[in-house]
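Fold Annotation — chain and its backbone

Encoding — discrete vocabulary of local shapes
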Amino acid sequence: RQAAAFLGLVPILKESGTSVKLRSHLSKAGAPSIRRKLYMAAVVSTRCNPDVSEQFARLKARGKPTLSALGAAMRKLVHIAFGVLKSQSEYRPQGT
């Protein structure tokens, strides 16, 4: 989670006084160049990676906007990459 937060991929909710009905958006705290690369990787992963495409389809079916679902896909890619680095093993999708 800290890696995703470092890259600015965690949702934040802006509140002001009594207005709490605003949509959440990505915090954008990290480097924008990395976020741009993750965005393109997420777009491709929604078609090619079974784990990411399943999550993307599930979020879209629940009525989430496309960019919100892509933000979740970007975050999932960071979690996958961190898991691969931490375990020092090859990535194997859950479906296989």
